[in-house]
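Morning F.,

Quick status update on the modeling queue. The single chain you submitted on Monday has been processed. Sequence for confirmation:
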Amino acid sequence: MYNLLITLLLIDCVLITIAVLMQPSKTNDAMSALTGGADDLFAKQKPRGFEAFMQKTTVVLGIIFFVLSLGLVWLSSH
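Structure tokens below.
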């Protein structure tokens, strides 16, 4: 059981990395990186399409990561 959870956790880590790298960049230029994007503070729009899918995928993979991590901690303490 321990080996199965470790394997699933490693697969989840790789998938989270891929999902984060596939998300589109929100900064348009280097100046917004320096200023923190303060000019876009009130210009927030709801993500649609691919961006929304990738955000949901990242959240689901993050939840799976924490559940697997907690399962490993519980299993290793018993």
